[in-house]
Specification:
With 254 residues, the chain is an alpha/beta fold. It contains ten helices and ten strands. Helix content is 35%, strand content 17%. It has a six-stranded parallel β-sheet, sandwiched between helices. Strands 4-7 form a two-stranded antiparallel ribbon. A two-stranded antiparallel ribbon has the order 5-6.
């Protein structure tokens, strides 16, 4: 199999210290489990909308029910999906070598967590979680007990709306998650990049940061990405196809 032996040698040379391997995953990994990428989710009824209408604060404020309903449909898809062999291979590796792997994901689903990587750093939030749209104008904060059913639910006291807990267009990534991801990229000896186009920043910039600090980079993706030039090894294939072979300690690699 293409470059499998060389890729495994990089992982082995990374060592056993905490954080030796940083893994960055993107939408392609979830797509293998049947979760459409953001653009692919804009089908059927939703194909006539600009993405910014469905994934921005401005779009939500203008049409809260429309946005809430789109995310409700996407949430159902996430709940139906199951972790694939790639998710399970990463979780098994983390169990086999506690502390060695730091997982950073651009995905907003919970497939890594359900596979066993509960500590994944989530750069773009959690689609199954809610948060309040704004600070409560009447008191310190709205609470879960204040939420009243609706599309979307709202605060019974001030009318504040619940929104999906994801990062929308024009919003900053969660500072704590971004800082943790940067530390992982800058301190790892090897970085494994799986299922990402490399087009979304600042997540894509983590690969260059890792290379600048001397890390070896392995990219696993079925199609060319915008960050292939940063890689020491590019492996053409999907997460479910390649990660079990790459990460299984008992596999000779050929």
């Amino acid at each position: 199999m293409q470059d499998l032996g060389a890729a495994r040698a990089i992982l082995q040379a990374a060592g056993e210290r905490p954080g030796a391997l940083c893994v960055l995953t993107g939408a392609g990994m979830s797509a293998e489990s049947g979760i459409p990428t953001f653009r692919d989710a804009l089908t059927g009824l939703w194909s006539r909308f600009d993405p910014a209408e469905l994934a921005s604060e401005e779009g939500f404020r203008a049409h809260p029910q429309r946005v809430w309903d789109w995310y409700a449909e996407r949430r159902e898809g996430v709940r139906r999906a199951e972790p694939n062999a790639g998710h399970h291979a990463l979780a098994a590796y983390a169990r086999r070598w506690p502390g060695r792997l730091v997982l950073v994901t651009q995905n907003v689903d919970d497939l890594h967590q359900r596979a066993g990587n509960a500590g994944a750093i989530r750069l773009h939030g959690d689609i199954l979680a809610d948060r309040w749209l704004q600070a409560c104008p009447q008191r310190t904060a709205c609470t879960a007990a204040d939420a009243r059913p609706g599309r979307p639910p709202h605060c019974a006291e001030c009318g504040n709306l619940l929104r999906p807990g994801v990062v929308w267009f024009g919003e900053e990534l969660p500072p704590a998650a971004l800082e943790a991801a940067r530390r992982a990229a800058e301190s790892c000896a090897a970085m494994l990049v799986v299922g990402t186009s490399g087009a979304v920043w600042p997540a894509a910039g983590l690969v260059g940061q890792a290379r600048q600090r001397g890390a070896k980079v392995i990219i696993v993706n079925p199609a060319p990405s915008e960050i292939d030039d940063e890689a020491n090894i590019v492996m053409r294939g999907t997460a479910a196809q390649l990660l079990p072979r790459l990460l299984d300690a008992t596999d000779p690699g050929d």
